[in-house]
């Protein structure tokens, strides 16, 4: 099962970027949650979003 399949719509609707407090979107491959406003992508590991700024990568 992919990380994207593990995240349901409800969870995606309540998660926000810890840096900007704006909505996140799922990356095309489903492996990250992207904050377009912050320019950061947060990894999803074993179906769990890692919303730590120090773990995010620049996009």
Automatic annotation (TrEMBL):
Q: Which InterPro entries does the UniProt record give?
A: Trm112-like
Q: Name one Pfam family in it.
A: Trm112p
The UniProt family comment states: Belongs to the UPF0434 family.
Q: What is this protein called?
A: UPF0434 protein FHT01_001045
Organism for this UniProt entry: Sphingomonas japonica
